[in-house]
Amino acid sequence: MTKQIPEPLYDAKFPHQHSVDDEIDLRELFAVIWQGKWLIIAITAVFAIGSVIYAVNQPNIYKSEALLAPASEEQGGGLSALAGQFGGLASMAGINLGGGGGVDKTQMAIEVMKSRQFTSQFITRHNILPDLMAVDKWNMSDNTITYNEELYSPETKTWLRKVKAPFKPEPSMQEAYKVFVKAISVDSVKETGMVTVTVEHLSPAVAQQWAIWLIEDINQAMKERDVTEATRSSEFLTKQIALTNVADIRTILYQLIEEQTKTIMFAEVRDEYVFKTIDPALVPEAKAGPKRALICVLGTLLGGMLAVMLVLIRHFVKK
């Protein structure tokens, strides 16, 4: 006696119900890729050749670095000693006696170097706008710079670039600032307190010169800030001495004036006011970029991935 196997029951609403396998068939994918191998090879080759051409045409970038150490605060010793005793009176004169709550001078100098005002003054003072905005290439044979003739004419020193309003042929300081901050880097190491100033440019000589100028200018700028503040404070304290007859207060004011005079004297006799150069910037011999081999590899991989995606998408769309 044979046992009859009952037929499976289906819902009346779905007479053609059957199990559907939604898993991706790897063999089918490989077959599709193999069928479109020539298209993949062609697209990958195009991307590879394009990336090689792009990498070869990119100019070399040179990087000049300088290692700096924060200058010691010898002039702050007297003010610190007076901070607890005469802090209230000094605050009336707008004098910071270094009570510990102020901004670190080294960090302040770093932020000043990154500011728009300092950058604009730096570009204007050293007349580096053409070297920043219009350089085409650097000639290694004679160490000269070739400018983009569509942007700038070195013979007449005029800007020729074509821009729409509100921009002008000569780049504004806002435009120059955006380019300049990409070319320089100022970083501090918290563990050691050292500061690294890095400048990148097509010309290694220009990179070194900018690094040297940056260090000189920031020392000068911070020196002028402190001298101006100390001078104004001394003038205020001198006026207060003339207005009081109390001997003790006059003594305190004289001591404060003495400390401000020390600050001015200290600033005038030292060129490296905020940063001392530990390792000066040099003219780099080896390029820092671009990484042409990496560009070629990434371009080839990108072309291969796009080609495979194109073949798969085309197959499934047809299917």
Automatic annotation (TrEMBL):
<dbReference type="InterPro" id="IPR032807">
    <property type="entry name" value="GNVR"/>
</dbReference>
<feature type="domain" description="Tyrosine-protein kinase G-rich">
    <location>
        <begin position="276"/>
        <end position="315"/>
    </location>
</feature>
<keyword id="KW-0472">Membrane</keyword>
<dbReference type="InterPro" id="IPR050445">
    <property type="entry name" value="Bact_polysacc_biosynth/exp"/>
</dbReference>
<feature type="domain" description="Polysaccharide chain length determinant N-terminal">
    <location>
        <begin position="22"/>
        <end position="124"/>
    </location>
</feature>
<dbReference type="Pfam" id="PF02706">
    <property type="entry name" value="Wzz"/>
</dbReference>
<keyword id="KW-1133">Transmembrane helix</keyword>
<dbReference type="InterPro" id="IPR003856">
    <property type="entry name" value="LPS_length_determ_N"/>
</dbReference>
<keyword id="KW-1003">Cell membrane</keyword>
<protein>
    <submittedName>
        <fullName>Chain length determinant protein</fullName>
    </submittedName>
</protein>
<feature type="transmembrane region" description="Helical">
    <location>
        <begin position="293"/>
        <end position="317"/>
    </location>
</feature>
<dbReference type="GO" id="GO:0005886">
    <property type="term" value="C:plasma membrane"/>
</dbReference>
<feature type="transmembrane region" description="Helical">
    <location>
        <begin position="38"/>
        <end position="56"/>
    </location>
</feature>
<keyword id="KW-0812">Transmembrane</keyword>
<dbReference type="Pfam" id="PF13807">
    <property type="entry name" value="GNVR"/>
</dbReference>
<dbReference type="GO" id="GO:0004713">
    <property type="term" value="F:protein tyrosine kinase activity"/>
</dbReference>
